[in-house]
Amino acid sequence: MRHVWRPLLALLLLAGAGGLALSQLELDYRLDAFLPQAGTDQQRIVVDQLASGAAGRLIIAGVEGGPTTALAETSRALTRAWRELPGVARVDNGDWSDEAAVLEKLMQARFVLSEAIPARIEPGALAETLDQRLADLALGGGRIEPMVARDPLGLVEGLAERLAGGRQARRIDGAWFDAAGQRALLVVQSAHPPYAVEQQDGLLDALRANFARVAPAGQDLVLAGAPVIGVASADASRADALRLSLWGSALVVLVLAFAWRSASAMLAGAVPLLVAIVCGLAVTVLAFDRVHGLTLAFGFTLLGVALDYPVHLFCHADRRALAATARNIRAPLLLGVASTLIAYVAIWLSDSPGLAQLGAFSAAGLAGAALATLMLPALDPALPRRAQPTRVKPVNWPAVPLLLAIAALGVLVWQGEARWSNDLSRLSPVDRGQVAADRSLRAAVGGGDVRYLLANRGDDLESVLRADERTVELLEVARERGLIEGWQAVSELLPSDATQNRRLADWPEAGVMRQRLVEAGTAFRADAFEPFLEDLARARARGPIDRAFWNGTPLAARVDSQLMQTGSGWRALIQPVGLDAPGELDQFLAERDAGARLVDLVEGSQAMVAAWRQEAGLSLGIAAALIVLLLWLRLRKPAETLAVLLPPVAAVLVTAAVMSLLDNGLTIVHLIGLLLTAGIGLDYALFSRSFHRDPPAAARSRRAINTCAVSTGGVFFLLGQSSIGMLQMLGLTVALGILLSWLFSRIGQPG
């Protein structure tokens, strides 16, 4: 036990330091953190939508099971209950009759929002409209009498239909239903940002709990949308990562227990890894305001190489003192660390906040792990006496990795741009059934295609609203030509002052309007529409509405999501609905000199990923040149430098070619895996080359590399069995890279 207390005390102190660092940690889950800084207005739109776009906060609910009347009643009950929940910005079910705040605002704003006013108040049109209202009264009776008295022209109903955006869900008993009439539909807009996974999870739980309380037996709730997918993805990733980490930890413990047969050595061997985590956390917390969750996930993975350092120390020790062994392996260990640090620092200097954090975390952690390994002798762990490792005749076939590297490079060149994948959706651990449910419910409720947006910009608020109105006029023509089914534009809720003043001028004074209603010759009493005339007088006196008019209603969130002030002016966004040929619409608008530009969020994000990759490629290229220079300055001979570089370079190239073919292109995750492969492969090559002239030392080095390859490679192979695409890509990439690094370090060294 005397050998155990020092390593155990060190682990407890490090655990305390790690807990302190974690207590100061503020996690960030913004989806845009791993994209480079936006350089153009279109890229800024992409980043804004990924970070806080309305589409990322939309939850679509479907209630099924039972007759339509019961489903409609449940829909109304849910709407009332969900609107009271904290974290809910808006709930729509197609029936606004219960939403008093919205109805009142629409009543006040209808005089500046309604179009074609002169045509509506012509004698013939007015008589026809009032006859229709009589028919409505015959059906609805006293329930709708106040509405008819206040809105005899049905302006609010028309506005509600127009604000729905063109393509609309089927209505049964006032509530939205799918085309088959089997599922009642509701739309919930979360007040939480898309990346706030925990808050979104709490909101989804509250929605389900309210449904269980108000819905009768036999009815079921289906939820879809970006928040639902995001929460499910996080849960799946967390569960899979926990399961695989437990299996991986068990494998490492088993391998190291077999290799070392010493409890104190195993405890001491965990010290460098914990030092790496503490150093990485401390530097990242100090250097950045908030740390992205993926930074920690990938950072812990990149620190996997830190597990190899104590393995080298203990396997090289044999019957010698640890202090002497540490001095003996110091040169190759520090050279490998310095080389890997150059690559991590290059990532630290990235323009992408998430990647910069990843580089900082990994660089600090790796440096701390290396220094901790060299100080492990102070912990005085007990090392078992084992038989000398078997000496085997070295196999020197450097032509094999060289030819394979050339072939792999040829494959990558032959693939061209196909060797890269810029599709961010491949990184998402989303169940295909959830995606199908999302598409089905979104189509049923008439939701717009969240991939496309039309963007207008202006120097001030008035100019951008006028540009938005001009685009809507062109979209009316485009709809007649079948290019689009509908849209949701901010100018429908907040027209420009010029348009509002023109519409107000089109309305006659209250006295004149009273006379026209009387002259329409219907069965209504002469004073039946006094509430309507009072509203008209107030609207004319109030003048144009402003952005703050909608505050306190769910429609304020829609205005805020579509209208924003930027550093160079204002931006207004239009959400297309039923856009099947975006290229044709874009050309149609361009031919008419429309100021609006069609923004493809998918294409924009892919372009930004490609731009980041080019930037990262340049940075890592410079880092690679510096690594070669460092190795040449340390080894002093070009032949020795090439002998060390050949195995890791060949392993990276072959792994890249294989994974590019298997996974239909390399993603950011693959690149992180290849970076880890390069670091591990360089360590293997340095240790193999440093001791190859001393047969006993070479045998110890082989045993250490074998242990490292089995433990680290096994962990990543288990990770590659994940059902989560991102974890699977990373695990298989690194596992294959470690296998090739081990093989090439054995056979790729020239004699």
Description:
- This protein is 64% helix and 9% strand.
- It has 751 residues and is of the alpha+beta class.
- The strands form 4 sheets. Strands 9, 10, 11, 12 and 13 form a 5-stranded antiparallel sheet that branches.
- Helix 10 (226-260) runs antiparallel to helix 27 (695-719) and helix 11 (263-287) packs antiparallel against helix 13 (308-317).
- It is elongated.
- The model has no long low-confidence stretch (mean pLDDT 81).
- Determine the number of helices (DSSP H or I, runs of at least 4 residues): 28
Given the C-alpha coordinates, what overall shape results?
Answer: elongated
Radius of gyration: 33 Å
At the third CATH level, what is the topology name of the domain at 396-438 and 605-751?
Answer: Multidrug efflux transporter AcrB transmembrane fold
Shape-level CATH architecture of the domain at 396-438 and 605-751:
Up-down Bundle
- SS-derived structural category: alpha+beta
| Fraction in helix | 55-70%
Low-pLDDT stretches: none
Q: Report the span from N to C terminus.
A: 45 Å
Beta-strand proportion = 5-15%
> Averaged pLDDT, please?
81
CATH class of the domain at 396-438 and 605-751: Mainly Alpha
Main sheet properties: 5 strands, antiparallel
CATH superfamily of the domain at 396-438 and 605-751: Multidrug efflux transporter AcrB transmembrane domain
Number of strands: 13
Question: What key phrases describe this protein's structure?
Answer:
four-stranded antiparallel β-sheet, five-stranded antiparallel β-sheet, Multidrug efflux transporter AcrB transmembrane fold, 64% helix, single chain, alpha+beta
